[in-house]
Amino acid sequence: MTKLENISMIKEANIYFDGKVNSRTIFLQDGSKQTLGVMQPGEYTFDTNEAEIMEMMSGELEIRLPGESEFKKLNTPESFNVPANSSFDLKIKTVTDYCCSYITD
């Protein structure tokens, strides 16, 4: 889905890693939550509370998911799932555009 309609958004930005990662939280018509953001080059570890689907729309990056020992290159656009209460590592090589969808029971 490249266009989102009938959404509401929190105006305040989510800013992480000294401003190198930022996003905006949106709510879809069905009440589900997503964040839309941009990551600058660097290495990051993200912790999750809820299960997530991460859609990497553009950029060059590598990922190491929970339970994996090696990084793997993603070919954007590409998505991956992350379980709740876990963490994952990213090596961002170029500016990367992403969408994170939160999965609730």
Which helices and strands, and how do they pair?
Blueprint: E1 8-9, E2 14-16, E3 21-27, E4 33-39, E5 42-47, E6 51-58, E7 60-64, E8 72-75, E9 78-82, E10 87-92, E11 96-103
Antiparallel strand pairs: 1-3, 2-3, 3-4, 4-11, 5-10, 6-9, 6-11, 7-8, 7-10
Average of the residue pLDDT scores? 94
Distance between the termini: 22 Å
- Helix-strand topology string: EEEEEEEEEEE
| Rg over CA atoms | 13 Å
Regions with pLDDT < 50 over 5+ consecutive residues?
Answer: none
Count structural domains.
Answer: 1
CATH class: Mainly Beta
> Structural class from helices and strands?
mainly beta
CATH architecture, by name, is Sandwich
Shape: globular
CATH topology (level 3) name: Jelly Rolls
Largest sheet: number of strands, sense, barrel closure: 7 strands, antiparallel
Kindly state the number of beta strands.
11
DSSP helix count? 0
How would you briefly describe this protein structure?
One of its GO terms (molecular function) is uridine phosphorylase activity. The chain has no helices and 11 strands. By secondary structure, it is mostly beta strands.
Description:
- The chain is mainly β and 105 residues long.
- It has a single domain (8-103), classed as Jelly Rolls.
- It contains no helices and 11 strands.
- The strands form 2 sheets. Strands 1, 2, 3, 4, 6, 9 and 11 form a 7-stranded antiparallel sheet that branches.
- The mean pLDDT is 94.
Question: Could you list some keywords that capture this structure?
Answer:
single chain, 105 residues, mainly beta, Jelly Rolls, 7-stranded antiparallel β-sheet, 4-stranded antiparallel β-sheet, 0% helix, globular
